[in-house]
Structure of PH domain and leucine rich repeat protein phosphatase 1:
Amino acid sequence: MLSRRRHRHKRNLSLGAPPTTGSTGASSAEAASPAPSSSPLSTLSLDRKTFLRQKQSKQLQASDKTWVRSDLRRGSGAGDHTDTHILIKPPSKCSSSSQARPLTSQASVQPEQEVPGGSRGWLEPINTSPMPALYIQLHGGAVRRLGDDERPLQILNEYLTNLGFEDPWRVQEEGMNPEIGCLIRFYFGKPRSVGGSERVQLSGVFNVRKGKLALPVNRWSKRQVTLSGTCLIVSSVKHAHTGKMHILPLIGGKVEEVRRHSHCLAFSSAGPQSQTYYISYDSYTEYLRWQRTASKIASQRVNSVDLSCCSLEELPAQLFYSQDLTHLNLKNNFMSPHKGVPALTSVYKSLIMSLSLSNNALSEFPLALCDITSLTELNLSGNHLSSVPAEVGAMHNLQTLLLDGNLLSSLPVELGSLEGLTYLGLSFNCFSCVPPVLEKLGGMERLCLAGNKLSVLDLAGLQWLSARYIDLRLNQLQKATVADVEQLAHIVHLDLRDTGLDELDVSSLCKLELLRCDRNTLALLRVCGHALKSLHAAHNKLKQLEVHPVPENLTVLDLSWNKLGCVPDWVWESSRLEVLDISHNCVTELPVRLLSSGSLRKLLAGWNNVCQLDERLEQSQLEVLDLQHNHLTELPHNLFIKAQSLRYLNVSANKLENLPAASLSEDAFSSLQELYVTNNSLTDKCISLLTGHGHLRVLHLAYNQLQTFTASKLARLEQLEELDLSGNRLKAVPTTILNCQRLHTLSAHSNCISAFPEVLQLPEIKCVDLSCNELTEVTLPEILPSKLQELDLTGNPRLSLDHKSLEHLKVDPSPSAPCVSESQGVPAVWSHGYTEASGVKNKLCVAALALDSFCGIHEALYGVFDGDRNVEVPYLLQCTMGDVLAEELHRGQRQEDYIINTFLTMQRKLGTAGQRMGGSAALCHIRHDPVASSEHGGCFTLKAANVGRCQAVLCRDGKAMQLSHIHTVKDEAEYQRVRQHNAIITEDNKVSGVTDSTRIMGYSFLCPSVTPHPHVSTVALTPQDEFFLLGSRRLWDMLSPSEAVEAVRNLPDALAAAKKLVTLAQSYGCSDSLSAVVVKLSITEECCCFCEPPPPPPSPGPATQPGLHPYSGSSDGSVPLPQPPPTSSATVSELSSEFSTSEMSSEVGSTASSEEPLTQAEPPTSHLNLPGRAGTHRPACRGSTFHRQFSGALSDNGLDSEDEEPIAGVFSNGSRVEVEADVHCLLRHNCAQSQQSTDSPPPVTPQSESLPLAFPSPSASPVPPSSPYLGGEARSGTLGRKARGNGSVACQGRNQDLIEEAADAPVKKQGGYFNAPAQPDPDDQLIIPPELEEEVRQIIQQQQQQLQTHSQQAHNYQNPADYFLTPL
């Protein structure tokens, strides 16, 4: 029957095609061929010619691709209407007329879809009317039926073009990629989503019993049970649709578990005449599904049904049995204005009160809605309405009408008859003036006209409106006219954000209570203060602010990011002011009356020019005081005595040398709980003054001049939870820290500490950072603290860990690859350091990518990724983006848009994780460019790209040079592009309330309003370039580019510099995840010697063995040239020239590849040999190799869970212990010999003869042959991870040269959108016992000798090289 059914579908499709010349024979021949049989429940893939034949391969064959690429029009939607281009078959199998076959409405019969027993839902009635059979699904969301004139490939190509791809050839290639299915997917027949069908209704055949279980007369019977809307429907199995039905309303009722029967629920209705039905389920899964859904319905206070995002075109028939339904949500569907909406009037004409039809792609106002007289709230936002019918005047009970995000330019006169209308939403339409009909709406209180085309703020025109709350933001207002005071007494709330006004005078609004005029260019503002309660004027250019009279009711005043030179006098005269924000201004003095105000609770005055606070401070009620980034040299001596309510004080980035006393006596304690004095000039004298703050929980003393911390003073801070002593000159942490039993975070990096403190004995300790110190040994307790999550010991060059400590910390003692800076006698051209810190919710939502040797020894790649509140997206970007960039480079070295295509390709690489989540990204690629050396004087080119709020900054001659740009709706071009695609911008300037960046990775459900197209800048590196920085979004919120450059310019160690940036940001107020990468540059003229034009290539000589040498050698014998790190190793990252490599374990960013690892006889290297230096291999010495390793994986699925109690300042990332350590491995008997080889060149052997280092000619190969990403199987792999079949860590989609026959839509996994690949268990690592170490060493040496002998024999039998080297 399945074959006959498919044969019938083929015949219908063939008959439905328009008669064209020469197409009859081909169509008949193909219609006669039977389709292969398949299960009706599986998703069948059909080619685009017949939509029915199952295709075995998941990609086009080579002949198919050749046929498509031979003519761009064959796969493009561009062209006339006679060429539909939806069929991709070679000419031998498809006649030319098949391309011209449009999608007509003759495909009338839908494929029959069987549904098994249980709760998979009711069968939708077969629609026999002429309807197209193709459906489209974007970003895994709702499924829409294609119209008669819509063409799949045209839609696909337009989607990819809007995404950012410009090259037509690349659009063709992306369209055929199997991973594109996570972005756009086509179906033949409507797919069924299990989650969506459950929300519409649950149905199945179960054992049902009515009444009490104790009565013997009631028996169990098989019944058809349906849970739809707000009712439980029980009917006969044979006559489910025609027989008698028992309807049980559940609103206000009960859903209880029956313990005497397994998998049984009792459903009871509300009211005195309640009835009870007992339903026994077949499985525990069914039981839980019904219990969860029914409990939500029963717990509702309002009779509402939520059917949003269910791909509905018509209302389900069973919904009409819910006779008590009053609120219906049909948002994000595709309801038909002629079929779906009119069905509401037949049942709910006098019942339904609230109806939402937003984002339903309605092109006209459904007239049937005007007949529902009971409606009080109607939402039609986000559609394509161009007019409102006059019949809307019959909806007399309407109180709220939302028409935002449409194409309206006028309103009917009949709208004025709605006397009960109180809220009218007209935002983001096409109104050029206030509609005159609004003057007739006497009861209207709230009017929203944001995002229209208003050019003049006519205050005189507002006097005829009765609205009290007016929203005019995001209109390009050129001026504001003044009106009579008496006529505007009704306006109490005015929103003028992002309107572009230069001056504003609203003093005529005498009853104004709230004014928002942020993000303009205001230099003058006049406001009436009679009733003013809240004023927000941040991000302007205010130099003068006039408020008259003095606002007695003002409680909140935000004047940050302006150009005020002083605090206006009327401010400290406001007797009820509680919150004042004047940060980021030019204020030089804070009046003493302001600090002594009896009402002021919160004062933010950071980033000003305040040099001194008045000593005549009187009693103050301040609870929060922020004075960071000023020029204070001292604080008032009685600050803590007079401000007894002060709980938070931040005076970081000043010039303080001491602190005031906490109280008058030693026995009295202040109320201070958080103290931030980072980046000052405090000495040891201030330590004794801290003991008076007995309630102190958070103390930041980083980057001062402390040399000792008195043990007795620290012992008195028993309430301390977070302590930061980084960047000082401390030699030890006092042992009295054990008195701080609540301490969970200790940060003391960048000091001179030589002894490991006893901090691991604290019961609450979670994070310990002792990096960049002088530790020599670590003493660990027998049992590590149960809450310990991070132990950072990086940057301690003299640290030695024995086998017991390594095993205890689960740190792998195997040496990693030598890095660029470790090369014997070779100065590093670049070296890096990076750090990451989690936020207060213990979630590490950032990731860093650092490869000093990328695609060859003369390239590097660095990146920072920020997921805001999710973990999956930055983790995927970290693991995959390097591979994608390498693949783009492999397409051609001279391709200028390779880094743009990297970002665009990553959009599909994110898979299902990028559909609803997103993240910012900044990427910097250093590349050898001989052409640039002649034009700009440098041979290395730095190409930086970013989306979102991650940024890169270059330090050139000590000045900050920004390499990034943040795309927001403040840019006129970006705003117009977002509005072109009918997106809504919320009050916080976020697109659809999701992200404030218009270009960002992920969030594909917002495409094309939000795209991953990056900003790209290219800079030729010169000797004047000192370093560059990459930082996550919150880092740049706290630090300006110039301040960040100045803070780390004098630090020689890149790791210490990155640590300092993160510490400063945390002390300045950041509580979210942070990441920073610092790359030190040493660009000299000698680095560019190999950029001279190469001589003619010599004759091909014997090549080196591919497994041993990545470059071919010369005929005179050579030393093995440097090899890149293999993909089987973890991500290699160099910290600085002093330190060695830093390796991420498989649990953080990489898993083992399928490649064979290199043997220890040939340690992989990635260093740069410069002219005059002999390039030699250096044996891997355990005494001089360090590793940065993480033994903890990311802890959660990235959802914004509230399961954990947030703890401020914890830098760890989850539930498992994370250890970061530069491990100084155990010395062995030949360490001295290895050390000697570091100081002097080794003796010349056939394996290590001297040879000048050479680079391949740019024309020889698209990428250097040493690329770890493009060799063999690694081309499709991910960075340090085991590759999937499609070369991605994301879920593999279906090939888009196939149209799928619908059965079940792809189901999103529970608990998150991305499940990481299987990770190796760190407990399975091999640890060699000390007594067997000598025996194992001998075995390894024998293997090394055998490999050396084998390599010498193979050296004489090498294949000719396919590329040539250019000697220096």
